[in-house]
Structures are given as C-alpha cells and as structure tokens.
Amino acid sequence: MVRAAARRGFLRPLAALLFPPGPQGGSGPHGVLPTLLVALTFVSGVVDAVSFLGLDHVFVANMTGNVVFLGFALAGDRELSATASLLALAAFLAGATAAGRLRRGREPVRMFAPLVAVQAVLVAGTLALTAGGSGPLPVVGLLALGMGLQNAVVLRLGVPDLTTTVVTRTLTGLAAEPWDRTAVRRLVSVAVLFCGALAGGLLTLHHGSHWALALAVALLLWIAAAGAVTAAERAGPEAP
Fold first, then answer.
1. What's the CA gap between 183 and 179, in Å, rounded?
2. How many CB atoms lie within 10 A of CB 16?
3. Domain annotation covers residue 61
4. Which domain holds residue 47?
5. Of 37, 53, 173, 169, whose CA–CA distance to 112 is shortest?
6. Positive/negative CA dihedral, 66, 190, 156, 3
7. pLDDT by residue (tens digit) across 54-85?
8. What percent of the chain stands above pLDDT 90?
C-alpha cells in the first residue's frame, strides 16, 4: 500500500511541486523525501501543541522557544518551568547526538526510516505514559528526545527549505527574497507547521493530548514505512 502510494498517490506529485524534475522527466533531485518532510513538519506542530498546551508550557521541537522560556522562568515567571525547559533541551541534544553517531558512515536516506521509526516508538511511549497518568516531565523528555532524532536526520538529508521545525528563516526568505519555486516550498513549510499546531491544539484542548499523540504516532509510522520503501527503491538499481 505504501509502495503504491509512493508511485501513484500524492507523494510524487507533491514532491514534484516542491522540486520539479529535470528536463528529462522522472523524479526530482530528492525523490519523494520532500513530501515525507512536509508530513514531519505537520508532526512537529502536533507535538509542540501537546507539550505547550498540555504540559508545562514548554516546546519539544522549537528549541529557540525553550531557550527563551528558560530565561523567562529563571527571571521569575511562575507559569514557566525552568526544569521542563532544561529537560527538553537536554533530551533534544541527546537525541540529536545519538542520531549523529548512528548515521556516521551511512547514507542519510537509509537512516531516515529507522530513525523515524524510533521516534514513533518514543511518541508511543509518551502516549502510554499519558494514559497511565504520568507527570509531565517524562513525557517532555521522550518527546524532545524524538525531536532531536528527527532534526538530526533532517539536517543530514539537507533538503532545502524543509527543516520540519523552524520557520523564522523561512519567513525571512519569503519576505526578503524574490518569489520563485523556493517560495512555494517555504509557503508549504509554514502552512503545514501551522496546520499541525492547529490540529494538535484542537485535539489537545477539546479531546485530550492522547488523541494528538495517537495522531503523531500514526503519521510517524506511515512516514517510516514510506521512507523504507524509498530507500529500498534507491538501493534497487545498485543491487547486483
């Protein structure tokens, strides 16, 4: 099913919209990976909605926000938790470090699916903790650990304008640079992050964070499966 979606569904058309194929046709320079990164951007919005609205007003994907929140908390803001911000930063860095070491000597495309699958397991763990009535800190730690993995592999893939978490530079580019195909990617990135935050916020505020986390797990499992198919297709022509 995932293979069929990659070939005939929306994966290739959206990837071609973001990165048009060359004059000889075929796939763009990154295959269907841009579409999968767009889906990861949506997941980032969902999990940040869970962490900010359902936990200690902390981000697990947007580390810029956490650095600022840590400063506010240390300045005396009682609505923010310095402990939660520090934990999110430490777990994020741990995830990024682990992903960096695991990918050494390996092609980034081959590591994409396994690392996203690990992220899905971590988010599923937070879903179990939430269902069991756990406090916020373990949930923050696991979510931030997963986002560290995600950011490390996305950084290594190096697909332009699709960082999956940060849009400050993206918005700057939209405002300061000429509008072309790059602007389409930037608009998609900003819009999808907004939609993920909106969906995660609606689920968290009206139905509970467990529904938002379940959505994130389902999406991550699908992304991991599609990424595995992509890696296998790329490896196919190289096989003897």
1. 5
2. 17
3. no
4. 32-56+92-232
5. 37
6. positive
7. 988 999 999 999 999 999 999 999 889 999 99
8. 59
